Amino acid sequence: MMPSSFSVFRAGISFVMMCIFYTSAVDSPELSPQTFFSTLQPGKATLVYFCQAESPRTSMFLEELNEAAKPLQDYGISVAKVNCVTEETSRYCGSEKDLIKAYLFRGNIPLREFPTDTLFDVDAIVAHVLFALLFNEVKYITTLGDLQNIENALKGKRNIAFSYVRAIGTPEHRAVMEAAFVYGTTYQFVLTTEIAVLESIGPEDIEYPHLYFFYCKQVLDLTQPCRRILMKQSLTTLNIHRFIKTMEAPLLTEVAGDPTQVSTVHLQLGLPLVFIVGQQATYEADRTTAEWVAWRLLGKAGVLLLLRDSLEVDIPHDTNVIIRRAEEDTQVEFLALSHIDLIVFHLESTMNVEEMVKYEDMAELNIEIQDDEVEETVYRDRKRQLPLELTLELTEETFHATVTASDSIVLFYAGWQAVSMAFLQSYIDVAIKLKGTSTMLLARVNCADWSHVCTEQNVTEFPVVKMYKEGQNPVSYTGMLGTEDLLKFIQLNRISCPVNIMSVQEAEEYLNGELYKDLISYSSMSVLGLFSPTMTRAKEEFTEAGSYLKGYVTTGIYSEEDVLRLSSKYTVTLPALLLARHKEGKIESIPLVNVHVHDIVQIITNASLETFPEITVENLPTYLRLQKPLLILFSDGGIDLQHEKTILRLAKKKYLDSVTPCWLNLKKTPVGRGVLQAYFGTLPPLPLLVVVNLHSGGHVFAFPSDQAVTKQNLLLWLKKLEAGLESPIKVLPAQEWKPPLPAYDFLSMMDAAASEHLARKVPECIKETDMHGSDKEQPDDKSAITEESIGTSKMKHSSRSSWLEEIKKPLRHDNQEL
Amino acid sequence: MGLSTAAPLWGAPGLLLTIALHLALYLRPAQAWAPVHRDYCVLGAGPAGLQMAYFLQRAGRDYMVFERAPVPGSFFTRYPRHRKLISINKRYTGKTNAEFNLRHDWNSLLSHDPRLLFRHYSDAYYPDANDMVRYLSDFAERLGLHVLYNTTIAHVTVNKDRGAWNGHYFILTDHRGQAYQCSVLLVATGLSVPNQVDFPGSEYVDGYESVSVDPKDFEGQNVLILGRGNSAFETAENIFSVTNFIHMLSRSRVRLSWATHYVGDLRAINNGLLDTYQLKSLDGLLESDLTDLAIVKDHKGKFHITLKLFMEEFFNQSSDAIPLPQDNNDNFAMRVAYDRVIRCLGWKFDFSIFSKSLRLSSGSELSEKYPLVRASYESKGSRGLFILGTASHSVDYRKSAGGFIHGFRYTVRAVHRLLEQRHHGVAWPSTEHPITHLASAIIRRINEASGLYQMFSVLADVVLLKENATTFEYLEEFPMQMLAQLETITGKRARHGLFVINMEYGRNYSGPDKDVFFSDRSVGHMEDAWLSNFLHPVIYYYRHLPTEQEVRFRPAGWPLPRPSALHHVVEDFLTDWTAPVGHILPLRRFLENCLDTDLRSFYAESCFLFALTHQKLPPFCQQGYLRTQGLVGTESLRQHGVESGLLWDSATMGQHQGASDQRPGDHGPGGHPLAPGPPVSPFNSNKEEL
């Protein structure tokens, strides 16, 4: 169709040539009005310029028009000039005054008229013409409401390409229109020039044009927003095309083949491929992670999920991410990254994106977002009023008088230190529990206010709890930083340690728990040292051990003349220890032979461990110290008595000495679910037996779920484990804990500024040598000013708009997410 | 120079001193008395001498302070002439932290006795010099410092002796001829000799040290003041309300302390004359080299300014015949006749009592009034001779506060720590902590340490990492220019990397010609922290201890060699660097990336989870939880944790969730293919609050 009409126009040119134009090769045909109308074809769009007389202004326009003819032809739009100077005038020619106008026709119907000053260059011409033709495909909006209406209307139906351009007729407007010409039937294009609309969507630097892709098609719930993806590159036709292509591509592809061979549309578009390496066992979680990465990288890279198990080629053992770049000569990278953000970081830090400056992208890594759970929770809780008055705040003036006047527990903390502030809450809880019952004074010192008190008390880190008792050196609390453990410490400190037992009668009461009834809930075991009155050294050693364990274990000492009555009753030779386990109602005896403080402490500590304990957050560290694999029975609620019996029996027969048998109550220790999920990917049916070898290899073995937990089965299974005949269901990751995110690289920023400064200085020096005899002091002043202005221009978050603006930022920050 | 806190003790007018010297020389033969030995001899019982005496006393050392006058701080009995100290006595800061409050107390010396704080001695923000005298004598008396008053050391020389700590003894001879043999000599004599410029007619000039302070003596007079320091302006301030006008003449332009951030430059409290000058009230400032000038006294006893050049030509002629600049140049600025010319040109160190053998020489042109010392305050000429106090200011002249009480009280402490290590094997005091306390240790210091704040860019804290960076040692207020010699000075090992914590103003912020009020001067965002202008903490990380070469040839404008990594804590309007996200978080990220580890803190529950699902634990769990010192937390904190997505919500754990909008925070750490990265990703954590 084009060639034929073209020849017709040609004929026209040869026919009338009255105006003199600066025309070039691909000329727009120039016609008389009459000829022109005869050439218009139905349905075909034509841009026509009616020319009155020659002027420099029109000649410039005509030059642009000529240039626009070629691209417009590509969209099937013809361009024509009509010379009105010929005698047959048309109403389109207008009067002499408004001599410069162009019209767009479809067939012979005029669609729009353009004052030629809106068609200032090729971009403007193409943009305006396409904009007029595609008025259905491209909706122009001015308010956020318009956008929301379109968005709502299209949910479940079509996706949207929304763009902001600074003005109509700009190059980026043309790029959007050209994209709309191609994709307008597939996606709804929405265009705005209102910065306010853009601002309400995202906090990005609004000086630049933007294009967002809204995923509305898959949104079925009308209350849900469409997911928005921002195109990061500049708005050029090619970039938009590439971006939309990636939006069309599947979000996540699962592949089984060799990562070096796989190809997707991304590679063809010059974008890298990111393979997330997972395995069948953790498929669900891996897929979720991969999807999440895919969303993050949408438009920047293709994301694929690669299951290690399904793979024939070998990939390095610890690899969890593979990156393959589009450039032909680049190597496939096998990476072991510790954090999702690092994928993005890694990708972007090496990607050749034109405008990318390393540190500008750091903000995207969320390095400014708190990822410390203690800091964040304490911060979120900052407005809650704690009943601090329940504890006495000490100052430089009151500290000494207070701790010498009464037995006191003092918490040293710092108001700005999150860990100590988190613990302060537990401390206040202790105060609440002890309110009015304790003889111990609960006090606190805020080291941020009373620095010297803390330094003097040798407190140089936070938090620290110290107990001050008359006539004794202060004792530091070394237990768990929680309400329960501290409460126990305070309660057990009510009695001296070891307690001096005065009679056999009293000793029996002590052992059966009646003597300190109220303390039994804090210490499930009471220790009694039996010594004949002459064993002074042994007594001393034991006393020291007792005071060392003070607050953690109840200890007593009996060394009256009739001590033999006890030793013979419990059939033990002196010196000896009697261990009363109140829960089980059992009393054990251990002879003490040539033992020192340290050994006694060790014996008591070991004795306080249970054979088959319920493992909890608080006691796990104590059992981990045994350095043995854990045999954990996971139970949803209380333990199955049959299982307990089985394991206890095996333990008693020393079959379980190579492991630490324990059980975990998910009701009491819900975080156990997280453990199970890590082992199995999902929550397996319970109860369940697992062996976790934390100290060598990190192998996790699960007792076959189809077998009953019987002595035989269990023993057989454990033997197989020992023989290495079972394969682990999971190998716990052995990576070191690396920095979760990068830090600001101020050195590079300074280097960048310095090199920029140098670059700027060169022309200035040339200038200065030109002006001979200028004041000597001037160069100095100048360079100072330049340096200052560099600083300012480098400042990413310039305070141009004053510090108050800074405050508003975080608020906006919040709705920036996709 | 700043008179306020400068503390020259030997502040006698030159005349007195020469008499003393003569006396001493005359008495020399009597030296036959056996010399008294002291390990440490301190010259001068001014603020610096007393400060050193305090530290020596506390350490139980054998020392003696020699003081010419019958009281300590005798300089302050006469100076400043107008009696108003311009060192700030800020009694209220709204804070109770005693260490922090020393940041705003420019007069107190360091001691353990809270009664010996200057605010108990004066209510005035700019206190009276007599209060300083009273304070110093209380300080010496209450602490029982060993000061030998009325003892003028007339001569100091050195005696080689292999057995001596430094290979020689310092021999001090007093005015009675008594000799003292000292292993270490600590010179805290301040700047006692008035600076004079030699030009024809300089004999007509009144010196600051002797000029009348009674304004009545200046009523209706034309006054010319030479100099443009605080003493010049202080003098002008006293009389400018009664003079016809004051002209102030100096070699270079006035330097305003609020533009240079140097307290020795002109303080706003003295700048009344700038006001009257710029508001056209006849007073004025002029710049010219004083050595080119001459003063001619006419027959009426008035003074005229002319050029030295003219004087030479008309040598021996009557004063009225000497040509004046206005003869040729009838609008010459200083054509008016003056009734008075006052010289206020500051002081210099008195080198006269030190024998040549001590090789105590003056510094470069910029600091020629000071003896030359190393950054450790030890003389370059003789080992074991240290310069303390105002005289030690060459180290940080026009930079920091080392020439003033609020600065040198810390440098004196640093010198004392050096001596303790060198001669008594007492290592530089330090505390050792697990690495998880590193950020807290730094935050604590940058928020309260007064030594870092006052002696910014001179004294810096140093963190020495131990093997594997699981623990660190924290050293306070080390003279940072001596970094290369850190191991010998402190007796510590620095083999596994170190951090240096310094306070700095912005690189291009300070200067006499700088506009310090420009509109973009404040930086709020932590990413722009490196552009901070106000004093803010800067942390340098070195993998290896820098060498002497590296320190000496560091980049221009840098206080230290280029580090492996650098962190700026963004300036803060309140100098309160405790904001969790604005200050602490970026610092932690910096430390983490230097140490290549994860320094976050975790609740015991998280540690429990990691312990059972990872082979390795983050340091916080290793150093806390595994040692049964985990942080348990409370229910309400837990709740916040769950809401923020940072803590596991065990209620939903293990349940299947919609795939597309699942946040990574929702799945278990084991299920996370990227373990042991944070089990919890920080993404979207703010979103929740919307």
Shape of chain B: globular
Query: Can you identify the CATH superfamily of the largest domain in chain B?
Result: FAD/NAD(P)-binding domain
Low-pLDDT stretches of chain A: 1-26, 352-363, 764-793, 809-818
Rg estimate of chain A, integer Å: 41 Å
Total number of helices of chain A: 28
Mean pLDDT of chain B: 87
Count of separate structural domains of chain B:
4
What oligomeric state do these chains adopt?
A: heterodimer
Q: Give the radius of gyration of chain B.
A: 30 Å
CATH architecture annotation of the largest domain in chain B: 3-Layer(bba) Sandwich
Sheet bearing the most strands of chain B, described? 7 strands, mixed
CATH class of the largest domain in chain A reads Alpha Beta
The SS-based structural class of chain B is alpha/beta
State the helix count of chain B.
19
Helix content of chain A: 25-40%
**CATH top level class name of the largest domain in chain B:** Alpha Beta
Pfam family, one (chain A): TXNDC16_3rd
Domain TXNDC16 third thioredoxin-like (chain A): 251-341
Domain TXNDC16 N-terminal (chain A): 29-130
Domain TXNDC16 second thioredoxin-like (chain A): 131-250
Task: Give your account of this protein's structure.
The complex is a heterodimer of chains A (818) and B (690). With 818 residues, chain A is an alpha/beta fold. Chain A has six domains: 30-121, 3-Layer(aba) Sandwich (Glutaredoxin); 136-246, Glutaredoxin, CATH 3.40.30; 249-351, Glutaredoxin (3-Layer(aba) Sandwich), CATH 3.40.30.10; 386-490, Glutaredoxin (3-Layer(aba) Sandwich), CATH 3.40.30.10; 495-608, 3-Layer(aba) Sandwich (Glutaredoxin); 619-731, Glutaredoxin (3-Layer(aba) Sandwich). In chain A, 38% of the residues lie in helices and 18% in strands. In chain A, the strands form six sheets. Chain A has a five-stranded mixed sheet with strand order 1-3-2-4-5, sandwiched between helices. In chain A, strands 6-8-7-9-10 form a five-stranded mixed sheet, sandwiched between helices. Chain B is of the alpha/beta class and 690 residues long. Chain B folds into four domains: 36-191 and 349-412, FAD/NAD(P)-binding domain (3-Layer(bba) Sandwich), CATH 3.50.50.60; 202-345, FAD/NAD(P)-binding domain (3-Layer(bba) Sandwich), CATH 3.50.50; 428-595, no CATH class; 604-642, no CATH class. In chain B, 24% of the residues lie in helices and 17% in strands. Chain B is built from 19 helices and 22 strands. In chain B, the strands form five sheets. In chain B, strands 1, 2, 3, 4, 5, 6 and 16 form a seven-stranded mixed sheet that branches. In chain B, β9 (222-226), α6 and β10 (245-250) form a beta-alpha-beta unit. The longest helix of chain B has 20 residues, at 405-424. Chain B starts with 13 loop residues before the first helix and ends in a 46-residue tail after the last helix. Classes of the chains: A alpha/beta (818), B alpha/beta (690). Chain A: Residues 769-818 are annotated as: Disordered. Chain A: Residues 131-250 form the TXNDC16 second thioredoxin-like domain. Chain A: Residues 769-785, 803-818 have a biased composition (Basic and acidic residues).
